[in-house]
């Protein structure tokens, strides 16, 4: 089993920055990708950013390209999401996820509990 624990969410103002972290533990050897998803009230869950473990290739949702950066620290088994120039529409619960398949997939195998990010205008 894989455990994913997010941290770093909170309330910020538009234009601010925030960094989310996701600590992975358990049977993570088989994971080929990790990513961040988000879900706002009344909306479908969407991919924010994903990273392929073997070479660090990344993919981003169109709405966050140029503002968000996904990275990882393999020595700490930790995934990060640096969010800059935050907008009110970025408000959502952000989920860390792990996958044994393609990093661009919409459905991942393992999920964290989520962390709330609220951006005020």
Tally of individual helices: 0
Radius of gyration: 13 Å
According to DSSP, the number of beta strands is: 11
Globally, the shape reads: globular
Sequence stretches where pLDDT stays below 50 over 5 or more residues: none
What distance separates the N and C termini?
40 Å
The main sheet comes to: 7 strands, mixed
- Portion in beta strands: over 45%
H/E element sequence: EEEEEEEEEEE
Roughly how much helix do the residues carry, as a percent range? under 10%
Arithmetic mean of pLDDT = 95
Describe the protein.
The chain has 121 residues and is mainly β. It is 0% helix and 53% strand. The chain has no helices and eleven strands. The strands form two sheets. Strands 2, 4, 5, 6, 9, 10 and 11 form a seven-stranded mixed β-sheet that branches.
Give short descriptive properties of this protein.
single chain; 121 residues; mainly beta; seven-stranded mixed β-sheet; 11 strands; 0% helix
Briefly characterize the structure.
Helix content is 0%, strand content 53%.
List the helices and strands and how they pair.
Layout: E1 2-7, E2 10-13, E3 18-26, E4 33-39, E5 46-52, E6 58-60, E7 68-73, E8 78-83, E9 92-99, E10 110-111, E11 115-120
Parallel strand pairs: 2-11
Antiparallel strand pairs: 1-3, 3-8, 4-5, 4-9, 5-6, 7-8, 9-10, 9-11
């Amino acid at each position: 089993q894989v455990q994913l624990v997010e941290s770093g969410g909170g309330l910020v103002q538009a234009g601010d920055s925030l960094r989310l972290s996701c600590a992975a533990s358990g049977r993570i050897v088989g994971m080929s990708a990790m990513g961040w998803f988000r879900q706002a009230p009344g909306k479908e869950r969407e991919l924010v950013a994903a990273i392929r473990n073997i070479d660090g290739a990344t993919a981003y949702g169109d709405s966050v390209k140029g503002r968000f950066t996904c990275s990882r620290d393999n020595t700490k088994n930790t995934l990060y999401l640096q969010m800059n120039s935050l907008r009110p529409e970025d408000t959502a619960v952000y989920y860390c996820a792990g996958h044994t398949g393609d990093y661009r997939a919409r459905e991942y195998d393992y999920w964290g509990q989520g962390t709330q990010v609220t951006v005020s205008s």
